[in-house]
């Protein structure tokens, strides 16, 4: 859950950097979100076979009861995220587009599918390798699991998100950055207990 300034956003972006220039729109929890994830997981597994070591539904849509942008976040573990030839062509053929490449941050890649581009739903597919990405993988899953099991943290996080969603953001990453302090606070509780 890296925070990025504008120069880092530009450096990590594959293609044109597109300002967000709209309000963040949160929806109440939608019980269809797990089904949307399951459909995406099936697409990824069909495209990658054994190259997909692990696939997890993450982000706010993975937490029952939590308001979220209607965008499915998925964690995908592959043997080597730097070896894009092993997974990228198959994911592109399945409709995903590489948008973020951060080799110096746990070899992270982010591929997207967007409704505006004709997809059935919007998806962020975060790619890591188990060894190089282990610290961030643990954090992502610990945060998700804490929100799933602790109502007070889920409510606190939702309150923060709703307050921030009322503001205008140049890039969606700025909205994500603004949540960092609260995320770290909740993660501290998740990782200590």
TrEMBL record:
Keywords: Coenzyme A biosynthesis
SUPFAM superfamilies hit by this protein: Nucleotidyltransferase
Entries under InterPro entries matching the protein: GrpB/CoaE (IPR007344), NT_sf (IPR043519)
UniProt GO BP: coenzyme A biosynthetic process
Stored Pfam families: GrpB
Top-level taxon of the source organism: Bacteria
PANTHER family for the chain: GRPB DOMAIN PROTEIN (AFU_ORTHOLOGUE AFUA_1G01530) (PTHR34822), GRPB FAMILY PROTEIN (PTHR34822:SF1)
Protein name: GrpB family protein
Species, as recorded: Nocardia gamkensis
Taxonomic lineage: Bacteria, Bacillati, Actinomycetota, Actinomycetes, Mycobacteriales
């Amino acid at each position: 859950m890296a925070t990025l300034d504008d120069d880092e956003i530009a450096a990590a972006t594959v293609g044109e950097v597109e300002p967000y220039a709209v309000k963040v729109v949160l929806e109440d929890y939608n019980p269809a979100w797990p089904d949307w994830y399951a459909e995406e997981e099936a697409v990824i597994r069909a495209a990658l076979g054994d190259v997909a070591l692990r696939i997890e539904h993450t982000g706010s849509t993975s937490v029952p009861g939590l308001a979220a942008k209607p965008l499915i976040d998925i964690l995908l573990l592959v043997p080597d995220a730097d070896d894009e030839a092993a997974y990228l062509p198959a994911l592109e053929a399945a409709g995903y587009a590489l948008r973020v490449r951060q080799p110096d941050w746990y070899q992270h890649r982010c591929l997207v599918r967007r409704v505006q581009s004709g997809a059935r739903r919007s998806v962020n597919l975060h790619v890591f390798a188990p060894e190089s990405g282990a610290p961030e993988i643990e954090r992502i899953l610990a945060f998700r699991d804490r929100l799933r099991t602790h109502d007070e943290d889920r409510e606190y996080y939702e309150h923060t998100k709703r307050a921030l969603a009322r503001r205008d953001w140049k890039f969606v990453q700025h909205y994500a950055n603004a949540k960092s302090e609260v995320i770290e606070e909740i993660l501290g509780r998740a990782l200590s207990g």
